[in-house]
Design a protein that fits this description.
Chain A: It comes from Lutimaribacter pacificus. Chain A: Keywords: Membrane, Transmembrane, Transmembrane helix. Chain A: This is Tripartite tricarboxylate transporter TctB family protein. Chain B: It comes from Lutimaribacter pacificus. The complex is a heterodimer. By secondary structure, chain A is mainly α. Chain A has two domains: about 60 residues; about 70 residues, no CATH class. Helix content of chain A is about 70%, strand content about 0%. Chain A is built from five helices and no strands. In chain A, helix 3 packs antiparallel against helix 4 and helix 4 packs antiparallel against helix 5. Chain A is flat and about 55 Å long. The two termini of chain A are about 45 Å apart. The radius of gyration of chain B is 22 Å and the shape is globular. The termini of chain B are far apart. Chain B has a two-stranded antiparallel sheet with strand order 1-2. In chain B, helix 6 packs parallel to helix 14 and helix 6 runs antiparallel to helix 17. By secondary structure, chain B is mainly alpha-helical. Classes of the chains: A mainly alpha, B mainly alpha. At the A-B interface, helix 1, helix 2, helix 3, helix 4 and helix 5 of A face helix 8, strand 2, helix 9, helix 19 and helix 20 of B.
């Protein structure tokens, strides 16, 4: 974790510098005279992040041991990529077709990428969950959500 | 007292009790589903109360708030996914206990601790709301700013393995809370031209992304191992693993008492919230324990500490609302709208203008605590059945509910984009051990912190020497400094110890 701490410290320090020098001046006006600047709190926070990130780097400069495990496993990164892909497809379908397609593909797609292969489950679970949502919101709570 | 007796008659003879029970049941179910917490449940249910009498309506909403507080422990214990951020410490020990085949015991302890904390806090609300109005006025902006700084420092130092990382997370939480229109100058901040960001980043999609969706992705990455554990994870054959034994009750009784007290005090202090309460209680119990190193591996005291404080926060957070008309929490803020809708304007005058309605509300709240115990206990076997379902079948449903929860906040797909952005941040913060809880608490208290900071500057006339006129604030600032020094010293010692061990290994 020491190597990961040092790298994340570098990255966060870079983000803080970028925010202080570019993003905050670009995205926040100075505000009227005589009032506390709207930039003050964001600048204070990014200043604090910069100082703390430098401290994080300095306290983790000791070389990492051989048994220092990487923070991410290959399976976790794979799951992140696959589920992100399912979300991307689902949102595209929401924008082009509608909410029903979004929900169905999100559930069925996630089931498939997680290794479920039984057709009854892959086809039946989206239907069951969408029906459950409809009963919960439209019948029990009486509130339209779309 | 006269009004309380009339209130018992009002609540127990009319339809109110049915609606209170319905609220508790609904809240329990919503709380158990990750991402659909009390705030979402109460907000969604307000339109349902239009056609109910005031006591039934307010009883239903209070029931949802209380039920979801207890229900959120179910997913924390069984899925390692807190239903709400305030149940995060419950998962630390609750999940390992469930994995050891002690799910029923853990759920029972979570329920009992929740009910006791909630009941004690409700009694404190009844006893303190009116008299406290005079004393609560002593907490001005300077004191509030100091209390918030202390809370963030304390939680930043406590949660996660590194104080520096905890404080970085808190700073980022506050930074993201500044997105949107600044309330005094109306200058848009960090909106990048998106009109949806003018009102700021909404807490619900952010919290759902960071907590629920990120956790689902981490669990998806460890699916094989977790499914294998689920197959092995059965209720133990030992009857003592399914019930709370006498020695466990004796160990947990003082923990629940302390958690109830901490939760009640945190609830009274405006702006801190249930997460602060549950983490403070968990930390205090860990420090008081003779075996602090065992926390996080399955200590039933951890569950008792967290749940008692978590549920004690909700009723006592209504004290500033009832006494001063100021919401002390997100749920109190949402409830203001419902109270006004049903003719009860929160504030000191409601005790003299509508004493019967206030008494009805108190009795409905006490009833909700007892109903929560009955429903929670009766439904425990059903909730415990979740652990037998493989994770690959749970994750898609949770993701769908998360999307619905995020979408409902603004009825816009933009909320889902926000949820996904914070999913990535939550995933990274989990893996790199940056406390996402500190981040979220920083985000929640940031508007109050900024406002109180701004007011403090004006009150102190931009001269910090004037702080001597605010001894309570000085005490909290000193406590914050002491916390930083104490935690830094402890971490430095640990770091030196680790380096020495490595050198010994190399030599």
């Amino acid at each position: 974790m020491r190597r990961a701490n040092a790298i994340s410290g570098f990255v966060l320090a870079a983000i803080a510098i970028l925010a202080l020098l570019v993003v905050i001046p670009w995205q926040i006006e100075n505000g009227p005279a005589g009032m506390m600047s709207p930039r003050l709190v964001p600048q204070l926070m990014m200043g604090a992040v910069l100082v703390l990130s430098v401290l994080l780097v300095l306290t983790n400069l000791e070389p990492a041991g051989r048994d220092d495990p990487p923070p991410f496993s290959r399976e976790e990164l794979r799951a992140l990529a696959l589920i992100s892909g399912v979300f991307a497809v689902s949102i595209t379908l929401y924008l082009t077709i509608g909410a029903l397609a979004f929900g169905s593909v999100l559930v069925a797609g996630t089931l498939v990428v997680l290794g479920e292969r039984r057709p009854l489950i892959v086809a039946g679970m989206p239907v069951a969950l969408m029906l459950l949502l409809w009963v919960l919101f439209y019948k029990i709570l009486g509130t339209a959500i779309l | 007292m006269e009004y309380l007796l009339i209130a018992i008659q009002d609540v127990f003879t009319g339809p109110s009790l049915f609606w209170v029970a319905g609220g508790v049941l609904l809240g329990y179910i919503l709380g158990a589903i990750p991402g659909l917490g009390k705030a979402t449940g109460v907000a969604v249910s307000i339109p349902l109360t239009f056609y109910l009498d005031p006591v039934s309506a307010l009883g239903l909403l209070i029931g949802i708030a209380k039920g979801s507080g207890a229900g959120s422990a179910v997913s924390a214990i069984l899925l390692n996914t807190p239903g709400e951020p305030s149940s995060a410490p419950t998962a630390l020990d609750g999940y390992p206990l469930a994995r050891q085949g002690k799910a029923q015991k853990t759920l029972k302890m979570g329920l009992f601790a929740s009910v006791i904390g909630d009941f004690v806090s409700t009694v404190v609300l009844i006893l303190l709301a009116a008299p406290l109005a005079r004393y609560a006025l002593l907490i001005g902006p300077v004191e509030l700013c100091a209390i918030l700084v202390f809370s963030l420092t304390f939680i930043g130092g406590l949660s996660g393995g590194s104080m520096i990382k905890g404080l970085i997370a808190a700073c980022f939480g506050i930074f993201f809370a500044t997105v949107g229109m600044e309330t005094e100058t109306f200058v848009p901040r960090l909106t990048f031209g998106f009109l949806q960001l003018d009102d700021g980043i909404s807490l619900v999609p952010m919290a759902i992304g960071m907590l629920a969706v990120a956790e689902m992705i981490v669990q998806a990455g460890n699916l094989r191992e977790l499914d294998a554990q689920t197959e092995r994870m059965k209720d133990s054959d030992n009857p003592d693993d399914r019930r709370i034994t006498g020695p466990e009750w004796r160990r947990c009784a003082p923990v629940i008492a302390r958690g109830s007290l901490i939760g009640t005090i945190v609830g009274i202090l405006p702006g801190l919230g249930a997460s602060v309460g549950s983490f403070l209680s968990y930390g205090a119990t860990k420090r008081a324990s003779k075996t602090p190193e065992k926390f996080g591996t399955g200590m039933i005291e951890g569950v008792a500490a967290s749940e008692s404080a978590d549920n004690a926060v909700v009723p006592s957070s209504l004290i500033p609302l009832f006494a001063l008309g100021i919401p002390g929490s997100v749920i109190a803020a949402i409830l203001i709208a419902a109270f006004i809708l049903h003719g009860l304007t929160p504030g000191p005058r409601m005790f003299t203008e509508q004493p019967r309605l206030v008494a009805d509300l108190y009795i409905a709240m006490l009833s909700a605590s007892l109903i929560m115990l009955a429903l929670g206990y009766a439904g425990q076997r059903i909730f415990a059945m979740i652990i037998r379902v493989p994770l690959r079948l749970i994750i898609p449903g949770v993701l769908l509910f998360c999307c619905v929860g995020a979408y409902m906040e603004t009825s816009s797909v933009f909320s889902i984009y926000i949820m996904l952005a914070f999913t990535l941040i939550g995933f990274l913060s989990r893996k790199l051990d940056f406390s996402f809880v500190t981040f979220l608490i920083g985000f929640v208290v940031a508007p109050k912190l900024e406002l109180s900071f701004r007011q403090s500057l004006q009150l102190l006339n931009h001269d910090w020497a004037n702080l001597v006129k605010h001894p309570i604030a000085i005490a909290f600032f000193l406590a914050a400094i002491a916390t930083v020094l104490a935690v830094a010293r402890k971490e430095a010692r640990q770091s030196v110890g680790t380096i020495d061990t490595k050198r010994e290994e190399l030599s």
